[in-house]
């Protein structure tokens, strides 16, 4: 088996570094200049400073070269995935495509695996998700992730291929559950960052994490996910990490909202677009997602944190 990582951001670079300790890996960057600099300097200073690339990692901007491998890991932002696939469809068939992004696509309301299957005909698809920060993986710190694949045999092969000494993969066939866990936890992380940023305390965060998890389950189960998947690494595990660490960009966006500070719009924050996509989808399904609604309101500047909290606290009392 041979592996390429498509996308040379923080996560793509981290995965490529980790895997290149056990097999040759090619990493694709869309910019020729960026690819040349990373390849020559053996560092991705812009996205993952302080980590050296192993010798077995080759960086290229030539998609034909990158896509010549058996397994391609797609590590680009969710809202860019369709464009990347569409621009390079000719090279991507028939390969095994593993989405490494977390989110729901605006406009269609679907996750990365559905987008891959739709754009690239006759492809085999899977998803790699779960609690991990790029810097932790790149530094070889212990991490456990979920490999979701509807095809059991392919899932087993990918689990073997992509597990490394420090990166342990668990397997599931519940692709929709794994996708939704990774996408929805980012919305809750923005909410948690906001309450901490506004100084509302750890107890408020615990309430939001728990009720946010209930919201994640409501949405995911309505779309056919299994409850156990939500309780695993891709759901509860990632929710815990993202709602409690300033390494998370989603959580940091929330902190900025809570503090009334500006947030750099060039930073990849998947939860912002996903909150809007999920809000529309929930409306279609007749689901009530009050925390998602509050996050959308704050992101759109239509609700202050104070108003959002007042709305949440004034909801009718009910059973847990
Ligand atoms: N950074 C992290 O710790 C983790 C990130 N992820 C997920 O990985 C995905 C990517 O995130 P990061 O690598 O962290 O983001 P990033 O912002 O560090 O990098 C994104 C990369 O995508 C490239 N890109 C953007 N638009 C593109 C396009 N149209 N065509 C080709 N390339 C394009 C950018 O040039 C950049 O190299 C996200 O869905 C994120 O949720 C998952 C787990 C951990
Ligand atoms: O998905 C992640 C952790 O599992 C990374 O979180 P952020 O995208 O919020 O940085």
UniProtKB/TrEMBL annotation:
EC number: 1.1.1.94
Location within or outside the cell: Cytoplasm
UniProt-annotated binding residues for NADPH: 11, 30, 102, 134, 249, 270
GO molecular function, one term: glycerol-3-phosphate dehydrogenase [NAD(P)+] activity
Enzyme class: oxidoreductase
PROSITE patterns found in the cross-reference section: NAD_G3PDH
Reaction(s) the record says it catalyses: sn-glycerol 3-phosphate + NADP(+) = dihydroxyacetone phosphate + NADPH + H(+); sn-glycerol 3-phosphate + NAD(+) = dihydroxyacetone phosphate + NADH + H(+)
Active site: 185
Domain Glycerol-3-phosphate dehydrogenase NAD-dependent C-terminal: from-to ranges: 174-309
Pfam families in UniProt: NAD_Gly3P_dh_C, NAD_Gly3P_dh_N
Domain Glycerol-3-phosphate dehydrogenase NAD-dependent N-terminal: 3-153
Keywords, sorted A to Z: Cytoplasm, Lipid biosynthesis, Lipid metabolism, NAD, NADP, Nucleotide-binding, Oxidoreductase, Phospholipid biosynthesis, Phospholipid metabolism
Coiled coil residues, start to end: none
Pathway participation: Membrane lipid metabolism; glycerophospholipid metabolism
Protein's job: Catalyzes the reduction of the glycolytic intermediate dihydroxyacetone phosphate (DHAP) to sn-glycerol 3-phosphate (G3P), the key precursor for phospholipid synthesis.
HAMAP family per the UniProt record, alphabetical: NAD_Glyc3P_dehydrog (MF_00394)
Protein name: Glycerol-3-phosphate dehydrogenase [NAD(P)+]
Taxonomic source organism: Sedimentitalea todarodis
Upper classification of the organism: Bacteria, Pseudomonadati, Pseudomonadota, Alphaproteobacteria, Rhodobacterales
Gene name of this polypeptide: gpsA
């Amino acid at each position: 088996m041979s592996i390429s990582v498509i996308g040379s951001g923080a996560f793509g670079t981290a995965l490529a570094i980790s895997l290149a300790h056990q097999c040759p890996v090619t990493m694709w960057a869309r910019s020729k200049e960026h690819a040349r600099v990373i390849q020559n300097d053996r560092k991705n200073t812009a996205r993952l400073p302080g980590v050296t690339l192993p010798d077995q990692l080759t960086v290229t901007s030539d998609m034909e070269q990158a896509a010549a491998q058996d397994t391609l890991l797609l590590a680009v932002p969710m809202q860019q995935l369709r464009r990347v696939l569409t621009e390079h469809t000719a090279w991507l068939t028939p390969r095994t495509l593993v989405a490494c992004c977390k989110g729901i696509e605006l406009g269609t309301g679907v996750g990365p695996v559905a987008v891959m299957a739709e754009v690239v005909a006759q492809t085999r698809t899977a998803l790699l998700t779960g609690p991990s920060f790029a810097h932790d993986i790149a530094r070889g710190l212990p991490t456990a992730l979920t490999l979701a694949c509807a095809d059991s045999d392919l899932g087993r092969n990918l689990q073997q291929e992509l597990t490394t000494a420090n990166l342990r993969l668990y397997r599931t066939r519940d692709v929709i559950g794994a996708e939704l866990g990774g996408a929805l936890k980012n919305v809750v992380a923005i909410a948690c960052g906001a309450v901490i940023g506004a100084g509302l305390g750890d107890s408020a965060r615990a309430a939001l994490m728990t009720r946010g998890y209930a919201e994640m389950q409501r949405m995911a189960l309505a779309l056919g996910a299994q409850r156990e998947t939500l309780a695993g690494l891709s759901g509860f595990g990632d929710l815990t990490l993202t709602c409690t660490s300033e390494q998370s960009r989603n959580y940091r966006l929330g902190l900025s909202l809570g503090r009334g500070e500006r947030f750099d719009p060039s930073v990849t924050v998947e939860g912002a677009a996903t909150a809007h996509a999920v809000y529309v989808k929930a409306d279609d399904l007749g689901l009530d997602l009050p925390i998602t609604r509050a996050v959308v309101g704050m992101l759109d500047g239509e609700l202050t944190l104070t108003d959002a909290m007042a709305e949440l606290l004034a909801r009718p009392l009910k059973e847990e």
